[in-house]
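re: ur question from earlier - yeah i can do the single chain one, its not a big deal. heres the input i used so u can compare w yours
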Amino acid sequence: MRSHGSSLEALNRWVDDVARLTEPAAIHWCDGSDAEYAELVKTMLASGDLLPLNAEKHPRSYLHRSHPSDVARVEHLTFVCTPEEEDAGPNNHWMAPAEAHAKIDALFAGAMRGRTMYVIPYCMGPIDSPLARCGVEITDSPYVVANMRMMTRMGRQALARIERDGSFVKGLHSTGDLDPERRFIMHFPEELSIKSIGSGYGGNALLGKKCHALRIASHQARREGWLAEHMLIVGIENPKGEKHYIAAAFPSACGKTNLAMLIPTEGYRKAGWKVWTVGDDICWMTPGEDGRLWAINPEAGYFGVAPGTSAKTNPSALTTLGQDAIFTNVAVTADNAAWWEGLDEGEPVTDWQGRPYDPANGPAAHPNARFTVSAKQCPSWAPESEAPTGVPISAIVFGGRRPSLVPLVFEAKDWAHGVLVGAAMGSETTAAATGAVGVLRRDSMAMKPFCGYNFADYFAHWLSFDKPGARLPRIFHVNWFRKDGDGRFMWPGYGDNLRVLDWMIQRVEGSAKGVDTPIGILPAKHELNLDGLDIAPGVVDELLRVDVEGWQEELSAIALYLDGFGARMPERLKAERQRVSKALDAAVIRPAASVA
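and the output i got, formated as tokens:
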């Protein structure tokens, strides 16, 4: 049992400590090589952890079936363990660090007996980027190792950087016995450490993802003066070859990956517009010497939701999945091809649990079925994703699923207003999903499950970037999901969303004046490029209408939400809400679209 694989004594000591606690049969230090990956796949094929898929349709791709009780993140078992409960905030489940360590270490005792303990050095972000941060995950799951190889820069180069830096985030994981009653994901921000046991699934087990890149990194970012955000990064190139990079935060089921891999409509393509994918899920931003926010995607791959991904919704994603992918909890067809609800072709014969497909058992693929694949396989992958400096962010976009009230797009009047817009964002539920219509769930900056500290302090941290010399991105809010009286979507979405991003870029460049309203700046109707779009003028009017009475009620609800975070809530954010509320009270607004 070899336990010394690093020149960094602190790392060796930690690995030794974990080995004494978990008692593995062997220890393997991961080097990230092709040979290592091939051996991992061989091991998992032999054990049944991976199943081969149709080699012609899915070259070098595999299916993994998780335990039926282990198919998603477990928020109620996810804890932020700070010395003081108030530092974790009401947005997190809290446990005292000493209690948390004792509880989870008791479960780790002997948990790796008979198993190999893998030591995974990884880097979140380009290896040579000053914006990147490193970690080491210890796990007994070869599935986790294979996924971390796709999702991070993993292996020898990462270890070399860790040894140079002398610091790293410590992540300890074991699948344990997969008992939901013995499953915990613990975060210790002050210690820069994570402990996760009892799950082999995605965000619970791939500790570089949500655990490190958001919960721990958000704490690091606050301490070090940057932002770790649940945002995509997309590059928009206009016909003149100029690129603007946009970071966008959306709650789940709001089209995040589709926007990250957006394909321009035919008219925009012919005019010379291009879209580049930097990241689909996580964005780390830090102020540059020029005062702008510069961003990296800390991940190297996509861990995306398969159901709903189709040639209509996201053809780029399907192309990306053409080879070298791992599918988790999808169904398979008679010719052993991956299948999920939303695909245009094929029929499932075996469901995600390996049973003959029977609609009475529910969907063929689990609704949270996933794919893991290298980002470089995406046809719109941006080479700038590997730039050590990152990319400069021109605009930040917030958005949610709001069937009513919220216009198609509006711009915040300044940074403080933008922070309020992000803090207040959320999505309304539908009857199909929950049995109740119009229940609004706030998800500030799409970070409710992922912020590693008190939301009130988080909002204050956002506000702190507004200082002399800063050239901050403009902040916008979008809503692709407005519905008419018959329940039909009013905006076509998908590739046509580029029309809205086009207007944002015009605002950034100063070529669109917009219309000033109490809730923000909206497009004048003639400023949106609607060429070739089959949409009635009255629909556009409604999409850009500001309902003063409805917004007055919304601002009252936002006040209650913010007050829920107690005395730490920044007075500046409360004052900004009051400013907007007073502007609404004083307003007599015509529909924005009617203003020339």
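The two ends are 75 Å apart (CA to CA). not sure if urs matches, ping me
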